[in-house]
Amino acid sequence: MTGNPLTGVRYSILDLATVCKGDTVHQTFERSLHTAQHAETLGYTRYWFSEHHNMESVASAATSLLIGYVAGGTQTIRVGSGGIMLPNHSPLIVAEQFGTLGTLYPHRIDLGLGRAPGTDALTAMTIRQAPINMPYDFKEAIESLQQYFRKENKTAKVRALPGEGVALPIWILGSSTDSAFLAAEMGLPYAFAAHFAPQQLKAALEIYHSRFQPSAVLKEPYAMACVNVIAADSTAEAASLSTSLYRMFLGIFTNSRSPLQPPIPYEEMEQLWTPEQKYGVMHMLSESFIGTKEKIKEELTDFVTATGVKELMLISQVFDQQKKLHSYSLISNLFKGR
Q1: Is pTM beyond 0.90 here?
Q2: What is the pLDDT of residues 66-105, one digit of tens each?
Q3: DSSP readout, 301-337?
Q4: Helix pair 201-211, 293-307: axis angle to 10 deg
Q5: Where residue 195 sits, what CATH number does that domain have?
Q6: What is the distance between the terminal CA atoms of the chain, rounded to a whole angstrom?
Q7: C-alpha closest to that of 179 among 208, 220, 137
Q8: How many domains does the chain have?
Q9: What is the rounded distance in angstroms from the CA atom of residue 327 to the CA atom of residue 230?
Q10: What range does the domain containing 238 cover?
Q11: Residue 119: DSSP 8-state
Q12: What does the buried/exposed string (b/e) look like for 171-209 if buried means 16 or more CB atoms within 10 Å of the residue's CB?
């Protein structure tokens, strides 16, 4: 590693397939593909989609289909899930879907797994056809999934075809300390959702690194953190662009999940939220990096040094597509020492 800690860190993108005001869902998917193609030219390592349901502002419900769409429109960038909410699915179905993806796009597909519902309680119960508080063994489900991918499973009565023998990295995702213990115990790579739940980031990473047990797939711990990043050519522009992100999270507090709104002058935000709502939004977005390239470089360097993560996954909730691509371009240069 050189004197710049960022040059030794991989950088990737998380996409919610966020619907922008005035766009159709089809246009949203085209934006995602365009962004992934741009990211590929900039040297980003991965492009992940998250699973969400029953949200007007997010179109990533059929996560595996979007992964296939983007993988088919790119050449080298890894494409995957950040993540598949495993309690919503049978491990066999996940193995078949990702076995298919891994067969079509060998050595390019990642399978990140989470245990949260990715939606509200009623929708989760509808998906699972079971009460949301029904006992669930996340570890057992992951082990079942791993078994379906093994070549040795060919003698089993139930097999994942395709899927069997497909080399596919499995990640454990978390937004609290619970999954950190499991990722460490199972010797799997770990990704933390600091872009909306930063409060337990430090504790979770400490648990993961200190308790990690080497496995057949990973000899040393490998942690990634997802953070919000909005880069622009000026501080004022970055502040204005960030209002789309703030209004999106304000919708969580006001139960208004509308499509991503166009930016407004930052000072106008004071008319849209109460002091309590502002505090709540800023608390959720405390690990966000917004500003010029120089400012973000300094802050990300401190973040990487403090956390010891080997990879950063970035999400840039910018309304204008060209400004979003520009944000990702500016950020990529930091990891190249520029």
Answers
A1: yes
A2: 999 999 999 999 999 999 999 999 999 999 999 999 999 9
A3: HHHHHHH--SEEEEE---SSHHHHHHHHHHHHHHHTT
A4: 40
A5: 3.20.20.30
A6: 15
A7: 208
A8: 1
A9: 6
A10: 5-335
A11: S
A12: bbbbbbbebbbbbbebbbbbbbbbbebbebbeebbebbb
